Amino acid sequence: MTRDELLAHCLGKPGAWPDQPWDGDVVAKVGPKIFAFVGDGGVGVKCAPTREAADEWLHRYPHDAKAMAYIGRSGWNTLRIGGAIPEDEILEAIDESYRWVVSKLPKKDRPAQ
Q: Fewer CB in 10 Å around end: N or C, the chain?
């Protein structure tokens, strides 16, 4: 799976749009919130509402999942592509991150489903 394929999956979500808040970094947003950080080697997503729950990914894939810097304490992980994590699980993690983020948006910012 390539970076472009990951980004295309993210942008296929209702209301999703690309942004470059930092030079060279692409994120996928819904409303004003980021739900995926798309990089060359992987994707950063909200894996769970708490750090403890998100740690399941680190235990299952110790070489291919890690807590994200700065926001990892809030349940965000970076998942490496091309490693032990199956592609369908990465896509499901993106879908789940999108759902977590949308569920926290004010109703006025939620996309029409």
A: C
